[in-house]
Amino acid sequence: MTAGRMVMTDLLKPEEIKKALDAFAAETFDPKKFFEMVGMKAMSAENVKKVFQVLDVDGSGFIEEEELKFVLKGFSNEGRDLTDAETKAFLTAADKDGDGKIGIDEFETLVHE
């Protein structure tokens, strides 16, 4: 039995998501700063991994580059798409093993670094 798919507002406060999205609306996206603004840095590793699962749209266990481009949409429908440069920078920051995608442990490390 599956309980419907978890949504970001089950894990994070909508007003903090909005504030963080607004902060990066016209500014270069900084994943670490964004995760801190939405309250993820203060979360347990377990809850950060739940956020990862919401962002892992295809359920592959990884956030691939094409999912990364739309990562802000995972936080809110109002989130903008990342630019190619922002997507690559995010991937570079998080992809410690160089496989071209972000695993759940790499994601948790990036958030809590």
Mind explaining what this structure looks like?
The mean pLDDT is about 95. The chain has a single domain, classed as Recoverin, domain 1, CATH 1.10.238. The protein has 7 helices and 2 strands; from the N terminus they run H-H-H-E-H-H-H-E-H. It is mainly α and about 110 residues long. Helix 3 packs across helix 7. It comes from Cyprinodon variegatus (Sheepshead minnow).
Q: Stretches where pLDDT falls below 50 for ≥5 residues?
A: none
Q: Beta fraction of the residues?
A: 5-15%
CATH topology-level name? Recoverin, domain 1
Spell out the helices and strands N to C: HHHEHHHEH
Total discrete domains: 1
Radius of gyration: 13 Å
Helices, by number, come to: 7
Reading off the top of the CATH hierarchy, the class is best stated as Mainly Alpha
Helical content class: 40-55%
Largest beta-sheet characterization:
2 strands, antiparallel
Number of strands: 2
User: Gap between N and C termini, in Å?
Assistant: 35 Å
Organism: Cyprinodon variegatus (Sheepshead minnow)
Binding site for Ca(2+) 1: 56, 58, 60, 62, 67, 99, 101, 106
Domain EF-hand: 43-78, 82-113
GO cellular component, one term: cytoplasm
Supply database-style keywords.
5% strand, mainly alpha, two-stranded antiparallel sheet, Recoverin, domain 1, 50% helix, 113 residues, globular
